[in-house]
Specification:
The complex is a heterodimer.
Chain A (H helix, E strand, L loop, with lengths): L9 H33 L28 H7 L3 H32 L3 H12 L6 H12 L4 H12 L11 H25 L3 H9 L4 H30 L2 H6 L7 H9 L5 H34 L1
Helix pairs in contact in A: 1-12, 2-12, 3-7, 3-9, 7-9, 8-9, 9-12, 11-12
Chain B lengths: L9 H24 L1 H5 L2 E7 L5 H11 L2 E7 L2 H9 L7 E2 L3 H9 L33 E14 H6 L8 H4 L1 H4 L6 E3 L3 H11 L9 H14 L5 E2 L3 H8 L4 E5 H13 L6 E4 L5 E9 L7 H11 L2 H11 L14 H4 L8 H6 E2 L6 H16 L1
Parallel strand pairs in B: 1-2, 1-3, 5-6, 5-7, 9-10
Antiparallel strand pairs in B: 4-7, 4-8, 4-9
Helix pairs in contact in B: 9-10, 10-17, 11-12
Classes of the chains: A mainly alpha, B alpha/beta.
Chain lengths: 307, 373
């Protein structure tokens, strides 16, 4: 919320700088600088052994190129393959966000409307999974979804009644989606809860007095007021899912490759830093434009909600 | 994402405090044991996970009156990436041939002083003088693994499938009987190597047409595979969820051992396909940035001793290039042809060479295409 700064006193300006300076510096150091490094990297040649080829020709150079090139960008745009994998990743991220929202909303509402003394405990329970290692939790899903698990047996027994052939849960897009939702659910619950907690209950009472039924009270009062929470929660889920590579690697099948896996591979197996940088830049651009859209929507919704 | 609100639960805080105290006291106990670190007599080893027997470490520390500090990696690329990112101070690394080749050409390694390595005579000449390091100027063989097929013996026998050929992971006529029960390695080089070998080419063939043939073979077989898996196949084979896996010999050894220890009704077998396979020879090398070359030579010579070298094989079922070690290796391992191949099989094994940067980029695109199909 940047308000006009005209007519500001000198003290206020200094105060503004003191408050805004550190976060701004943080962004410069941890976002702008790495992005610049990535942009520079993307215009280099990959080194013969990994890393980067030199910009100027060394004296003892016998093989390989040096200097500046847009080769990696050409490689990216020369094939529809990479657009496909972006699309696939965005679909996965959208599905995860939607499922997280549908699951998190009732929970956040429940917490926000519980008695005050239980709320902190419930919030603690939501974040408790973070206390155990992320990879261990994902590996646990391997066991839960595995063909010999109780869940698999149960599902296939039910399917068997209807004459449907047994299915495998693990190593499938379904397993990846389950893993993604599981990992990111708290990131949706927390912003929703902080938003819903602030709602004034008298608004709902007023709506009831004016004859609104339960559904109308939710749809016309609670939901519009909660939209900022919905948008920030969605951003917190959508963006990390796009970069995630561990979940598809562990739970995915033979076709479950996402953009995160591809980028990781450019820096490890393929040792192609420039192309990895191009992919990262494209991802950053995509994420930034989505975050921009979300902010715009969120502001729009806030204005609508408060009018 | 931890909420910044005061915790209303003294019990929870108390538990955290207790956990902290336990951790702290454990840390102190450990520090007391390691007085060697304080005196600065430390050898820094950058090694694969679980790639040296604990008793060997203890004996070496006693022998040299020093401490062996280990950091671990789980693949060569990770190790190279860490070194490229500036990790320094390691006295010894244990890379596989192609990664060692990279390090040698980068000039990152220190030549060996063979007068300090009398035990070098224990190494089988078949594993010396490789294309990566002619004359072993920089490297001493440590252990090796084969990339092969591991399988559930009972199931595969019951279905009447062959286990001595790559056809079983590439040919739909075999695969349809074991659909969804097969995994292959999540490694561009290893899987391409298997496909290239099956087609009769070298694992290092980089011809575009041959790669295309291999990719087609992989795409045709892919619907029958459950997943690309680099580690989870060990457990999945051992519990019976998987019936066939493309993987490393020491991992298959682990899976077989796990199945036996947990009393499964089946056995895990493994064999090298007749078409040939990848041999990965890991060697000890000295990075230029190491501070203790003398101590590192001592460690090398110590590990070239048959008894010490055999302990690793007995622990993880790795192949052993040390002829003196054979007498200390448990007979069921020493007699296993998938770990110690006969000379005929050995002649069909190949080591992977590093690809150049253009080939790497090309292979990566092919791999992405394979995965998206």
């Amino acid at each position: 919320m940047i308000k006009g700064v005209k007519g500001e006193t000198k003290d206020a300006r200094i105060a503004r700088f003191l408050v805004g300076g550190p976060p701004l510096l943080f962004l410069l150091v941890f976002f702008v600088a790495p992005s610049l490094i990535m942009i520079l990297t993307s215009f280099r040649f990959p080194g013969e052994f990994g890393g980067l080829a030199p910009i100027t020709a060394p004296e003892d150079m016998t093989i390989g190129e040096y200097g500046i090139t847009s080769e990696a960008y050409q490689f990216f745009f020369s094939d529809v393959l990479y657009a496909k994998i972006f699309l696939k990743s965005f679909l996965m991220a959208s599905a995860t966000t939607l499922i997280c929202l549908v699951m998190a909303y009732p929970l956040a509402m429940l917490i926000a409307r519980s008695e005050k003394r239980f709320r902190n405990l419930m919030v603690l329970l939501v974040v408790l999974p973070f206390a155990s290692n992320f990879l261990i939790r994902i590996y646990a899903w391997m066991i839960i979804l595995g063909p010999e698990s109780g869940l698999s047996h149960f599902i296939n027994a039910v399917l068997g009644i209807f004459g449907i052939a047994p299915i495998t849960l693990l190593f499938s897009p379904f397993a990846v989606l389950v893993g993604m939702v599981y990992v990111h659910l708290p990131f949706m619950v927390l912003p929703l809860y902080t938003n819903l907690e602030k709602h004034d209950p008298s608004l709902l009472n007023a709506a009831q007095d004016l004859g609104a039924n339960a559904w109308q009270r939710f749809w016309r009062v609670t939901w519009p007021l909660s939209l900022p929470g919905v948008f920030s929660g969605s951003a917190l889920v959508f963006i990390p899912v796009l970069g995630m590579f561990a979940v598809p690697e562990i739970l995915g099948g033979t076709g479950d490759i996402l953009i995160g896996n591809l980028i990781k591979d450019q820096f490890l197996g393929t040792r192609d830093w420039p192309f990895g940088s191009v992919l990262s830049i494209m991802l950053t651009l995509a994420v930034l434009s989505i975050a921009g859209l979300a902010t715009w929507f969120s502001r729009f919704a806030t204005r609508q909600g408060t009018v | 994402m931890k909420p910044q609100r005061r915790s209303p639960m003294p019990l929870v805080s108390l538990l955290f405090l207790l956990a902290w105290l336990v951790l702290l006291s454990a840390g102190c106990a450990k520090r007391d044991q390691n007085t060697a670190r304080a005196t600065g007599n430390v050898l820094h080893l950058f090694n694969w996970n679980n790639y040296i027997a604990p008793e060997t470490v203890d004996r070496f520390e006693e022998f040299c009156n020093c401490e062996l500090a280990q950091d671990y990696y789980s693949d060569n690329e990770e190790m190279l990436a860490k070194l490229a990112a500036g990790a320094a101070g390691y006295d010894l690394i244990v890379p596989t041939g192609n990664a060692m080749d990279t390090l040698i050409r980068q000039g990152a390694l220190r030549p060996l002083d063979k007068s300090l390595l009398p035990n070098l005579r224990n190494i089988n000449p078949a594993y010396l003088d490789t294309a990566f390091d002619p004359g072993n100027k920089y490297s001493v063989p440590y252990a090796y693994t084969l990339t092969l097929l591991g399988f559930n013996q009972e199931k595969i026998k019951e279905l009447g499938l062959p286990t001595d050929t790559w056809a079983i992971i590439f040919e739909p006529k075999y695969l349809e009987k074991i659909k969804g029960r097969v995994t292959v390695l999540d490694s561009q080089r290893e899987l391409m190597a298997a496909a290239l070998k099956y087609l009769g080419y070298s694992v290092n063939d980089a011809d575009e047409k041959h790669w295309k043939e291999a990719a087609d073979l992989i795409v045709r077989a892919k619907p029958y595979w459950a997943a690309f898996s680099n580690t989870s196949y060990i457990k999945e084979l051992a519990v019976g969820n998987l019936w066939l896996a493309h993987g490393y010999s020491n991992d298959m050894f682990q899976a077989a051992l796990d199945a036996k220890r947990t009393g499964r009704r089946f056995k895990i077998g493994y064999s090298t396909p007749k078409e040939g396979a990848v041999l990965a020879l890991d060697s000890m090398v000295l990075p230029q940035s190491g501070n203790r070359p003398g101590l590192a030579h001592q460690f090398m010579n110590f590990m070239l001793d048959g008894k010490n070298s055999a302990e690793l094989t007995n622990l993880i079922g790795s192949g052993n290039p040390n002829t003196d070690a054979m007498q200390y290796i448990r007979p069921e391992i020493a007699d296993n042809e998938a770990i110690f191949p006969d000379t005929e099989t050995l002649s069909r094994l190949e080591m992977l060479h590093d690809l150049d940067r253009r080939q790497r980029r090309r292979l990566s695109r092919l791999w992405t295409e394979i995965k998206l199909r």
